[in-house]
From TrEMBL:
Its cofactor is Zn(2+). Keywords: Hydrolase, Metal-binding, Zinc. It comes from the Bacteria. Transmembrane segments: none annotated. Belongs to the creatininase superfamily. InterPro entries: Creatininase-like_sf, Creatininase/forma_Hydrolase. This is Creatininase. SUPFAM superfamilies: Creatininase.
Length: 271
């Protein structure tokens, strides 16, 4: 069973900080998801994956605390379509750094960002890097689809949905599993033009076009073949992969810092 940050007292949390617990901070977004999916799609998905993955990792021996999900992200590229709440890039970067700084100043020297929205990704990595520069702490960050990409390809080789896409077959399947009552079935399209240049090029490269950063009309691919059964398979596969990554990340943080601690679990100053 995992522990939620917001259900503990300060005394309990202070004790866990001294014992070397890492805090997992899920990152979501509130933004348009086409004509058929709710604006909380990324939040629903990231919250569920975070809870399942942290619970699995804790069962395997990791000392993790799950922080409340941050429900607004960097989504300026969706604002033109309506139905979107967003922080600017500069504000979002500052918010993530403030979250990390407050945790570090509260005694937690291990922080893991787990992301569920593409627009957050680069800023999340920058925040994690900056925090490791300014605080005597371990930081890590990843988007769930990158952690689980190989596992998804192995478990679902027949699937044709781009992962994660945006408001396409992949996310629609996940929401049909998690919150089917929020899906407008009559607005699901079976045809949708794709842009071959999206996600093209070498790893780490970027190419984009105003108005089509997330595909034609704000989404990437059709959802007519999406099902809740597929969504549950995706969730199980993703949660298992993320749990393994969380466990490995925590072990790295815990094992490498043993020689640097003062015996209480807190970092000893470098001399």
């Amino acid at each position: 069973m995992f522990t939620r940050f917001d259900k503990l007292t300060r005394e309990q949390l202070n004790g866990m900080a001294s014992q070397g617990y890492a805090v997992v901070v899920p990152l979501g977004a509130c933004e348009q998801h086409g004509l058929h999916l709710p604006t909380g799609t990324d939040n629903f998905i990231c919250d569920e994956i975070s809870r399942r993955a942290v619970a699995e990792a804790v069962d395997m021996g990791a000392r993790l605390i799950l922080a409340p999900l941050l429900p607004v992200g960097s989504s300026a590229h969706h604002i033109a379509f309506g139905g979107t709440i967003s922080f600017s890039s500069a504000t979002y970067l500052s918010i993530l750094k403030d979250i990390g700084a407050s945790l570090a100043d509260s005694g937690f020297n291990r922080l893991i960002f787990l992301n569920g929205h593409g627009g957050n990704e680069h800023l999340m990595h920058q925040a994690a890097s900056d925090l490791a520069v300014t605080h005597l702490a371990w930081t890590a960050s990843a988007s769930y689809w990158n952690v689980a990409r190989e596992a998804l390809a192995a478990a679902c080789p027949e699937e044709i949905f781009p992962v994660p896409g945006h408001a396409g077959g992949f996310e629609t399947s996940l929401i049909l599993s998690l919150a089917p009552e929020t899906v407008c079935d009559d607005r699901i399209g079976c045809m949708h033009p794709r842009r071959p240049w999206m996600a093209a090029g070498p790893s780490g490269a970027f190419i984009g076009k105003q108005g089509e950063l997330t595909g034609v009309d704000g989404y990437t691919d059709p959802s007519g073949l999406a099902t809740g059964e597929q969504g549950e398979r995706y969730l199980n596969t993703i949660a298992a992969a993320v749990a393994k990554w969380l466990l490995a990340t925590w072990k790295t943080m815990d094992g490498d810092t043993q020689a640097e601690t003062d015996g209480s679990g807190n970092f000893a100053p470098n001399r």
